[in-house]
Amino acid sequence: MLHAILQEHRSKPLPVDIEHQVMTNTTEIWQQGQPQPKSCDPVFAYWQKKGGLSSKVAEIRFWNAIEARNFGLARYAQKSITDKSALRDADLFWLVRKNPAKNLTAKLLNKENPHHEQIIEYALKRLTSSDLHAAITRWLQLREQLDLNPVQQASLNRYLSIKLATRFDPQALSLIAALDPGYQDNEVTEWRIRLALSEFNWQETAVFISKLEPHAQNSSRWQYWLAVANEHLLGKRQHQHFEKIAQDRSYYGFLASEQLKQSFKLNNEPSQLPAALKAELLSHPTVQRIQELVFHGEYYYARQEWNDLFPTLPEIKQHALAHLARDWNWHSQAIMAAAALQKWNDLTLRFPVQYHHLYQQFSHLSKIPLTWALSITRQESAFNHEARSGVGAMGLMQLMPKTARQTAKKQQEPLDSDDQLLEPETNIALGTAYLGQMLERFNGSRIYATAAYNAGPSRVDRWIKARGHLPLDIWIELIPFNETRRYVQRVLEYGVVYDLLAKRPARLLQDNEVDLLTLSLLYAEKTGSSNSQAF
């Protein structure tokens, strides 16, 4: 646009207001930390000729480029910095970057200089990759000597603490105690609990749970682990505590129910929408257009129409519109609407089944549970067969093209193009086949296979090698990736929901998996039995 303005006025001076707009906008673009396309060069040339490039503007671009880790661009921007103080800051960055262990010292830094805060953060993270303990030691010194910005302190305390925890560093608990002595960071405290679990330190587990913020402390996750800790500490079964947790429709609620050997609480609240409400909505011109677009598979335009209409409706009509989307098999939109409306207990809306015959057929061929494949799909794409992730995963079961090609080759199935992964039959056939491969690779463990489907089998191999000796519920809790831990727990939880909705016998875990839970092992040890019934 700026180039077009210059072209339009190339034979005469720009009007004052337009020139001001061009100069201001060009400055904003030039000082970004990313390289700009060649097409911007004529505008930048005009801007520089008119005096737009100052030392201050170059300084801003330098630090933006450092933040974006575009070091070549930072070197380029530095050539236009003339202010001596700004040049000293830039040179200090390169000095510290070259050898953070040697040059990141308080005597070179000024706590009043925001660029020095940026240098500290970058250098510590760089040092962390090579020597985490050295980075922590240096940070604790700087934190005491410089009295830095509290926000930056909290950020670096969290960063270093979670690095320690997720690497399961032998000194993690003692070092985290130095980084966050006042239990200020809830996420860090949660990792302290996990580390205590990994060491079967039930006293510390209970103490750390008591340090959580109330909303986290009262969650079914940490109430479950508090009950487990108390069983070990007190030698008394925590039936009442588990009964309370079991009221929750969640992984931990189902885990508590299964250990109590009682039925699961589904807490389903089917919608009681008046029948006339859908009919009224179906007479709305926009709803008619949405329905037609969905029928023809034009989901992009259907979503545009939906996004214009949905916010204008009262809540009861929004809920009814979500059920219409379900009727049209537009399940991903129905699920998103249910979340927006917080209709968490409208399970017919939130847990659809589409392409049931395909899932049944290919689950049987791959020798995996039907419910498992449905739960994976619900978590991966919410039954959106056109789904594409930011990293390239495609379709209902969000297969990466490379994985799909390898699976197709093993199955001796044709896969002529990646776009075939958007076809439900192809996607389900290869997705279930890959799940079957993961199940076989991990000796029939759905837990490990589910984690592998999300994080990759090589990572899961490493996690098993490092912590596979731990009880199964602790192993799941200690999955170092938050996303993968949530993924595994949700897939297990969704499996129970799907089975209950279909009136099939429901289990969160199989008998051999229940045998590997913390409390099952505790009571098996006490009774000398390996049978989970001892619990």
Automatic annotation (TrEMBL):
It comes from the Bacteria. Keywords: Signal. Gene3D superfamilies: 1.10.530.10, Bacterial muramidases, Lytic transglycosylase, superhelical linker domain. GO terms for cellular component: periplasmic space. Residues 367-470 form the Transglycosylase SLT domain. InterPro entries: Lysozyme-like_dom_sf, Lytic_TGlycoase_superhlx_L_sf, Lytic_TGlycosylase_superhlx_L, Lytic_TGlycosylase_superhlx_U, Transglycosylase_SLT_dom_1. Transmembrane segments: none annotated. Residues 283-347 form the Lytic transglycosylase superhelical linker domain. GO terms for molecular function: hydrolase activity, hydrolyzing O-glycosyl compounds. Belongs to the transglycosylase Slt family. This is Transglycosylase SLT domain-containing protein. It comes from Oceanospirillum multiglobuliferum. The lineage of its organism: Bacteria, Pseudomonadati, Pseudomonadota, Gammaproteobacteria, Oceanospirillales.
